[in-house]
Amino acid sequence: MKNKSNIVNKLSFILFFSTALFILITASITTDLRSGAHFIIVPLIFATFYIFFNLYYKLFKLQQKTATQ
Prior knowledge:
mainly alpha, about 70 residues
């Protein structure tokens, strides 16, 4: 069971840094682009945040499962 929690910790570490990197990239993109391109960028940002939220939720559920076992 300790091996499972180690995998979960590594997953959360990777997810945290990928989210931080994604936020930095989107911030740099949106500052470079003019107002016309925001119609493309904003839905992409919302879609990726939805995906990240789902991943964090699944990870949280996985952590709860490994904690109860």
